[in-house]
Design a protein that fits this description.
about 220 residues, alpha+beta, Glutaredoxin, Glutathione S-transferase Yfyf (Class Pi), Chain A, domain 2, 4 strands
Length: about 220
């Protein structure tokens, strides 16, 4: 009998999906992809995901899901016995709107400037300015997210797919010296106590995070897809 295949890079955005898979308790095969070594550009991986990015979840019927929100929604709707998305349409739309801010802006515009600076200029003299732009974008996004947490518009007491998305950018911020606003910091600390999060961080090689020790990002994370 076939099972789902999960393609991931430790410490990347795929960590959020890894947490969801562990939270749900679904059976899957884990296939690590080393971005620094360029494994995402190997023909066999591009045959699965032509975009050359992680995460990827290949379903039992062979369908490949290649975007964070799509994977998270599919898992919530098809694999979870616990409600991982709001039943209320307005609340669901607000959650997806903020997840898009996390993934498209905080990650896609902010952290890419920090982790893959060379994408934005061929001139090394520009790199520090680009990284500063990235940090400013991340801090602006986190401030917006922080305000929405305070007004109860994301991340309720009941775990949802939004928690997994928010965690991975909080994790990146913590590892790159970007201060987390108060509500985000509290959320990050709560997430670090969840069994699924602790399990994933152990499996992905971030034991020091659980001990509260400072630790650098793994080398295979810096080529953020």
């Amino acid at each position: 009998m076939s099972t789902m295949k999960f393609y991931f890079t430790p410490g990347s955005c795929s960590t959020g999906i890894h947490i969801l898979l562990e939270e749900i308790g679904v059976s899957f095969e884990a296939w690590p992809v080393n971005l620094v070594k360029g494994e995402q550009y190997r023909p066999e991986f591009l045959a699965i995901n032509p975009k050359g990015t992680v995460p990827v979840l290949v379903l039992e019927d062979g369908t490949a899901l290649t975007e964070f929100i799509a994977i998270a929604m599919w898992l919530a709707k098809n694999c979870s016995r616990k409600p991982l998305v709001p039943a209320n349409t307005k609340a669901l739309i607000e959650m997806l709107d903020l997840m898009n801010l996390i993934i498209s802006a905080c990650h896609g515009q902010g952290f890419t400037r920090i982790f893959t600076t060379e994408r934005y200029s061929r001139n090394p003299a520009d790199y520090e300015q680009i990284r500063n732009q990235g940090r400013n974008i991340v801090q602006g996004c986190l401030s917006t997210i922080d305000a929405r947490i305070r007004y109860g518009r994301i991340v309720s007491e009941q775990f949802s797919i939004a928690d997994a998305a928010l965690f991975y950018v909080e994790f990146w911020a913590a590892k790159t010296g970007i201060p987390l606003p108060e509500a985000c910091h509290e959320h990050y600390q709560r997430m670090l106590q969840r069994p699924s999060v602790r399990q994933v961080l152990m499996e992905e090689g971030y034991h020091s995070t659980l001990a509260g020790e400072p630790v650098a990002m793994r080398a295979d994370v810096h080529a953020v897809a």
